[in-house]
Automatic annotation (TrEMBL):
InterPro entries: Glyco_trans_1 (IPR001296)
CDD domains linked: GT4_PimA-like
Domain Glycosyl transferase family: 224-367
Record-level Gene Ontology MF annotations: glycosyltransferase activity
Protein name from the UniProt record: Glycosyl transferase family 1 domain-containing protein
Source organism: Candidatus Campbellbacteria bacterium CG22_combo_CG10-13_8_21_14_all_36_13
Amino acid sequence: MFQQNITKEDSVDAQTKQGLRVLMISTDRKIFEEGSAVRARAIGYAGLLNELHVIVFSTRKHKVSGARFQVSENVFLYPTNSFSRWLYIHDAIKLGHRILGSKSYKLTPNAFVITCQDPFECGLVGSKLSKAFKIPLQVQIHTDFLSPYFKKGFLNKSRLRISRRVIPYADGIRVVSKRIKDSIYGSVYKLKTEPKILPIFVDADVIENTPANFDLRAKYPQFEKIVLIASRLEKEKAVDVAIKAFAKVVKNYPKTGLVIVGDGRERRALELKAKSYKLSANVIFEGWQDDLNSYYKGSDIFLNTSLYEGYGMSLIEASLNRLAIVTTDVGIAGSGGLLVHAQHAMVCQIGRADCIEEYLSRLLSNDVGVHGMGFRCYTRVLEQVSTKEQYYKDIVDGWNDLVKK
């Protein structure tokens, strides 16, 4: 699967090739999988760079053997291979010193930028390396970390404390939505730079034109209408609110099914909750599925009950499949600015099962309304998506801007 580079000194034409070098700090281990979308994006960025080096948090149990992998002409991956997750930061900083302190980079004039995929553990690694080597730092923010619901739990409280050190130090801040930008401006953070909005890349052509691998309606012929949830089954996704609302919906629409695709620590509790509401015949737990496309294409309504989202990729995917959407006010919906309530989606306050029930019932009683809202949502999202090439350029332009300051 991997092509390993044995020495740390040799790099792709390091002495002569022009352009920016980027050190990325990441948690996404999908990059080690050949053919993954994460790796494809990294190679796409690198097409506009001199070199891209990616340090990825990993433990030994993840079984990513080797110290360095060259996966394209100028993309290099470095797993931390930490003994414990509590050593990620220490091991990533150590790797960063080896990369940035190597002779090949001291001898070449090409500019370096550090980018971190969150303002938490990754951001702390990046800020320490940035200070040590006097290299510009970009922090990327993908989640609504200033939501009051994010702050629950010891780990996220610790991450908030880290962000207070990292974000004010950053030379560049990339956020994926207006919601995150607004929340930062409304906070106590003192910024060196204005956050720039660059949404997550969505391949609209692939989502629209990939045919379903199976017929969801044929799989569940007992349902006249299907409501879909595609989500990790964790507390912050609040799927229990969806089940509570659906218990009332089926009283009037008994041939409606709620299909839940995803897995997580809350699955057993949610299954018991559905059983307690006597919904076993109407609520289907599909577990984790790689083929979400077939579920989107076989459903009528998409339901999202999350407590917080920075962006909400599932909302985009549902939109591009022309589904009517009922969602809480998170990510790009509602005050997030893209999906406007009653025009592109039905938006509820967080935790309001009664609101979820009302809007699901309205849509289930109105086929014309479902199709109309699905189409408006589709056209709204389609206006916002960029081509892959433009997205890569926008990402790299953000890095190049840092060395011009």
